[in-house]
Structure formats: C-alpha cells, structure tokens
Write a structure and sequence with these properties.
By secondary structure, the protein is of the alpha/beta class. Helices cover 47% and strands 13% of the residues. It has twelve helices and eight strands. The protein has an eight-stranded parallel beta barrel, surrounded by five helices. Strand 1, helix 1 and strand 2 form a beta-alpha-beta unit. Helix 1 packs across helix 2, helix 4 runs parallel beside helix 6 and helix 11 packs across helix 12. The longest helix is centred in the last third of the chain and has 20 residues. The two termini are 33 Å apart.
C-alpha cells in the first residue's frame, strides 16, 4: 500500500451543538484533496479528536470519508487504543467499511512493556488484512515503542509503516534496520525535511490543513534534488509548523488549528471538552499567524 508522501491527520468538524457537521466534513475532504494536495487522510486520529468520538461516530466518519474521497486519496482509519480487544474490533469494523489502512497508536495510560506492545500490534495485525501504520507519540502516550520493537514488528507482512514522533535519531534507526519497503513517516511537521534527509518517506501532518500545497512542493523539490528550494520552503513554513502548537504558550492539537481554519473560511467549529478553544492571547497570535500565510 502506497499512502503517498503527504498524509493529513484530518480535523473532525463540529456544529454549534458539538455534533459532527457532515456538510463541512464533506467540504474539508474536498479541500484537503483538491487544494492542499494530500495523498491520504487519517480519519479519527489525534487531530480528529478521537478520544472524545463515540464508536458509532468513528464508524460513520470512516464510511463517509471512503465515499467522499472516491479513491482520490487513501483513507486511513484511526482504530488504535489501549485495549487490544477493542482495537481489533474497531479495525475489523473499519475494514468492512472499505478503508485503505489503519493507524494504531501505542497503548496509552497502561504503560505496556516492549513485549506487551509487540503482542498488542501483532494481535491486531493478525486479525485484519488491512495495511497497518504504527503510531509512536510518547508525548501523549507516555510509553514509547523502541526502534528495535518497531523493526521487529516491520517483519509482519501487513505492518507496512510507522508514524514516528519520538526523535530523528529513532527515525534513522528504524529506516536503517527495517525491511526494504517499510516506510517511516515523521509525525512532526517541523521535522518533515530533516526526516526526509535521513530516509523517511513522508509526513503525517497537521499543518497541511493550511499549507499542504506548499509542503507538497517542499517534499517534491527535495526528492528532485533541489535541496536549496526545499530548504527555503522549510524556512518559510517553519513559523506555521511551530506556531500551530506553541502559540504564545503550548496549545493542545487541534485547538489552534481549528481556530485557524475558521479564520480561513472553513467553519469546522470548536473542540470538545476536555480540550478548550484558544484564549484571547492565543487567538491574537493565531490571527497574526494566519495573516502571514
């Protein structure tokens, strides 16, 4: 399965009552594919507020995205959790709905050992024919899958990729040790170009909601050997990469992103509690950031 170079972890649009806004979900999928040039969409990932989406909402979103994308972008379903049994169930249900792959996060809160993580992902992989992308984001899960465990899992035929947020060092270790064809994606927008330089295949992005076309240009420039142009684009885009997460103070994803999208004319609504919308100072910073795009 080729998920492409630019993957967008899509927001879940909500209406004023906090329910899924299906009209804006349709618009967002079209916008990301046609205008921001994304190759694949992660549905119900971190940026999609997966912790506060009910299972029935996730299944509806998977089915809706498959129908709306019409093969123009791959649909990767966020089906991972800290329960192996539930992850298997949700992955199998997503497969029935026609998604192209599954994103499985490292189990959070219960802090499994490396062997526990291996068995968790192995069990899910054996329950489905879907291509699987692992997702290591230790800043959110506390537990971190090691490069060695990732390489071990890469030997399982349908575990085809990983989204790595730990470090460039870990990206390098996985790229150098995994079987040929196993693809490593950065999960940090600001590390897109450096990660490509050490062998990553692409990026699972948040910022691509607002600067995806430019990010695609940066990636393609690097792959064509125009490193100077790629570096200049990286430097230009870097304030957006950092600003969407840091603002004047760190803002949880996707609070700042949704505020930015609303400013840009995409009414995706706010975030569900326990996330909160940006405060006055953060909102002012985001307005300045958006004006610079």
């Amino acid at each position: 399965m080729d998920f492409g170079r630019l993957i967008t972890a899509m927001v879940t649009p909500f209406d004023e009552q906090g329910n899924i806004d299906w009209s804006e979900t349709s618009n967002m999928i079209e916008y990301l594919i046609e205008e921001q040039k994304t190759d694949s969409l992660v549905i119900c990932g971190t940026t999609g507020e997966s912790p506060t989406l009910r299972e029935e909402e996730k299944l509806e979103l998977f089915a809706f995205a498959v129908k709306q994308a019409r093969g123009r972008a791959k649909i990767i379903a966020g089906t991972g959790s800290n329960s192996t049994e539930h992850s298997i169930h949700l992955t199998q249900e997503a497969e029935k709905l026609g998604v192209d792959g599954a994103l499985l996060v490292v189990p959070y809160y219960n802090k499994p050992s490396q062997e526990g993580m291996y068995r968790h992902f192995e069990a899910i992989a054996s329950s489905t024919s879907l291509p699987i992308m692992l997702y290591n984001v230790p800043s959110r899960t506390v537990a971190s899958i090691s490069a060695q465990t990732t390489i071990r899992l890469a030997a399982i035929p349908n575990i085809v990729a990983t989204k790595e947020c730990a470090s460039l060092e870990q990206v390098t270790q996985i790229v150098s040790g995994a079987p040929e064809g196993f693809r490593v994606y950065s999960g940090d927008d600001s590390a897109t170009l450096p990660a490509l330089a050490v062998g990553a295949h692409g990026i699972v992005s948040v910022a691509s909601h607002v600067i995806g076309a430019s990010m695609k240009d940066m990636i393609e420039s690097y792959l064509k050997g125009d490193v100077v142009k790629a570096a200049k684009l990286h430097q230009k885009l870097f304030p957006v990469f950092k600003g969407l997460f840091e603002c004047p103070t760190p803002v949880p994803n996707p609070s700042a992103l949704k505020y930015a999208l609303n400013l840009l004319g995409h009414p995706v609504g706010g975030v569900r509690l326990p996330l909160a919308d940006p405060d006055e100072a953060e909102a002012a910073f985001i307005r300045e950031l958006v004006a610079s795009i």
